Amino acid sequence: MADAKKTLVERLFAEQAGTLRAYLLRRVRRQSDAAELAQEVYVRMLRVSDAEAIRNPEAYLYTVASNLAKEHARHERGAGAPLDVNDPTVQAQLAALPGLCGDLDAERRVARLREVLQQLPPKWRAAIVLQYWHGLSYEEIGTRLGVSSNMVKKYLNQALAHCRRRMARLR
Questions:
Q1: Are 88 and 138 spatial neighbours (Cβ–Cβ below 8 Å)?
Q2: Which among 20, 9, 10 is positioned nearest to 47, based on CA atoms?
Q3: Contact at 8 Å (CB) between 162 and 124?
Q4: How confident is the model at residue 146 (pLDDT cuts 50, 70, 90)?
C-alpha cells in the first residue's frame, strides 16, 4: 500500500513537475515560492491515507496545488495588511526613535527613507508630509488634497505599509 502511494507520487512528480511549478508560478509570482509550494504538494500527496481512492491523481494534484496557492495568497495578504494609523500601538512605534548604532547608520536610514518616500505616489507622499511633519488632522489634509478624510486615512495606511516593506529591506 505504501509502495503504491510512493510510486504514484513519484510518477506524478516525474510527469508533472515542470507543469506544476509553472501553474504555481502563475499564481504566486515568485520562483522560490512556486518551488516551495510544489514540494509541499508532493508532501501532502504522500500524506493521503488512501491513495487508491483517488480516481484522477492529476486532478487531485492540481486541486491540492490550487488550495496551497490560495493559502499562500491569504498568508501574503495578512502579512502585508494595512496598518491602522489610529491604533495606539502603531502611533507608539511611529513616535519611538529607532536605536541608532552610529551616525553612519542614521545617515543611511535617513537617505533610505528619503528614497522610499520619493517612490510613493504624490498624494500618499503629501499625506505623510502633512501628517507627520506638519501635524495636520485628516480633515485638514483632506481639504488640502481635495479628498475625504477616509481617503486620507487610506493614503496614510498604504504609504506606511509601503515604507515599512521598503525600509525592512535595509535591515
A1: no
A2: 9
A3: yes
A4: very high
Nearest-10 crossing angle of helices 103-119, 149-168: 130
Are 2-79 and 88-168 the same fold in CATH?
Answer: no
Q: How far apart are CA 21 and CA 28, in angstroms?
A: 10
Q: Provide the CATH number for the domain formed by 2-79 in this structure.
A: 1.10.1740
User: Could you tell me the CA-to-CA distances from 51 to 6, 55, 106 in Å, in that order?
Assistant: 9, 9, 58
**Measured between alpha carbons, how far is 27 from 66 in angstroms, rounded to an integer?**
9
Q: Considering the domain 88-168 in this protein, what is its CATH number?
A: 1.10.10.10
User: Could you tell me the pTM of the whole model?
Assistant: 0.46
pLDDT value at 157 more than 60: yes
- Whether the pLDDT of residue 100 is over 50: the answer is no
Q: Would you state the torsion angle of the CA atoms of residues 74, 80, 84, 85, taken in this order, to the nearest 10 degrees?
A: 180
Say yes or no to pLDDT of 93 above 70: no
